[in-house]
Amino acid sequence: MQSYDVVVIGAGAAGMMCAIEAGKRGRSVLVLDHAAKPGEKIRISGGGRCNFTNIHTSPKNFLSGNPHFCISALSRYTQRDFIALVERHGIAYHEKTLGQLFCDGSARQIIDMLVSEIQDRGAELAVSTEVRDVSRTAEGFTLSLSSGTVACQSLVVACGGKSIPKMGATGFGYELATQFGLAVVETRPALVPLTFDARTLERLAPLAGNAVDAEVGCGKTRFSEAMLFTHRGLSGPSILQISSYWREGDEIRIAMLPGMDVAELLRAARRVNGRQAVQTVLANHLPKRLAQAVAERTGIDGNLADLTDVQMKNVDAAVNDWRIKPAGSEGYRTAEVTLGGVDTNGLDQKTMQAKSVPGLFFIGEVVDVTGWLGGYNFQWAWSSGWVAGQAV
Ligand code: FDA
Questions:
Q1: CB 87: neighbour CB atoms within 10 A?
Q2: 28-42: string of b/e by CB count within 10 Å (b at 16+)?
Q3: 145, HSE (Cβ side, Cα atoms, 13 Å)
Q4: Per-residue pLDDT for 312 more than 90?
Q5: Closest-CA residue to 34 (of 130, 105, 119)
Q6: Whose CA is nearest to atom 18 of ligand 1?
Q7: What's the number of CA atoms in the CB half-sphere (13 Å) around residue 265?
Q8: Which ligand 1 atom is at minimum distance from the Cα of 335?
Q9: Which residue's CA is minimally distant from atom 9 of ligand 1?
Q10: What's the pTM value of the predicted model, to 2 decimals?
């Protein structure tokens, strides 16, 4: 039986970072994955360019049952550390928007960088390898794999969340946590488009393809980014962001011209030309079909000269205080991440080690720490992988 100091299950962002760091410390490391290639989610991330971190990363960009849990890892291995690694490998990058850093070339460069670092540190990478069983021994753990049996002192669970099952996401990490007596916070799809009931969709579907810069809120949380009408409902960055905070039964509030007083806009337009239609004025600021839909929804068919103050306020509300109740989300099929996961109460925030099972570590998305859209989830994978790499 082959024996290692460290076995990492999952050659994704977190697992590879952990393997590199453990290798640097002279630990013998096996990182294994059931997929045929490492880092498949990195490959498809950021539209193929990988939004690998965010220069503004701070603990407030994360959701967790314990919002303080991520502070230690994020401060020990920061976005600047990962940027330095990217620069050492000569990978060109740019800031797209809101601090989001993307490769100029391809996400493949990030995978190549990680794989070459793994090789330089002498760690082994085994793909197309299934884990059939994991058991605890006096010395550590024994894993029954499709390729044989291996033993290790430290076992790192880095198998990610449930999103995109088509790419091999399994929820196996949660099963392992449960097997070893750790609590798992209920999981749900996050950073995911929202869907609507048939009646609402009838109204929304003709708008599919239109996009606006919107402010979308749920409860006390708000995001100002693009919003996209789709055939199934609403999507785009602002909707994906709010989906992490939305729960069934909640309404979301949307401002499609945030910061603009639409009633005043209509009054000003009336002073210039009272014979214009409402939708004509709105179409100067919104896509034409959307402007038309707003006018129809408020039931106004006269021109500006005929509008009462109340009607102007109604138009303002239809544009900037649109309240709508999503029926659900597109689910794990398209969700970028999984909310919830291994309960942070059971983990040491400095090492990611299970408090009740010495030698067992959980890192990356499988843990109940979920970032906003914009490179934060990879930064959590790098940071949590790095701290575990110092401790295994
Ligand atoms: P990750 O999912 O990367 O890796 C887990 C690994 O474990 C996989 O290789 C999987 O095959 C393996 N595995 C699973 N079960 C196993 C089992 N039973 N046995 C063996 N191996 C197993 N984030 C971001 O910050 N910027 C971005 O641009 C994007 N873009 C993006 C696009 C899309 C389409 C998605 C779906 C997601 C993103 N994300 C993102 C989120 C980001 O991809 C995610 O948060 C990280 O990949 C999480 O890293 P992990 O290493 O924890 O899991």
A1: 11
A2: bbbbbbbbeebbbbb
A3: 24
A4: yes
A5: 130
A6: 172
A7: 22
A8: 36
A9: 12
A10: 0.97
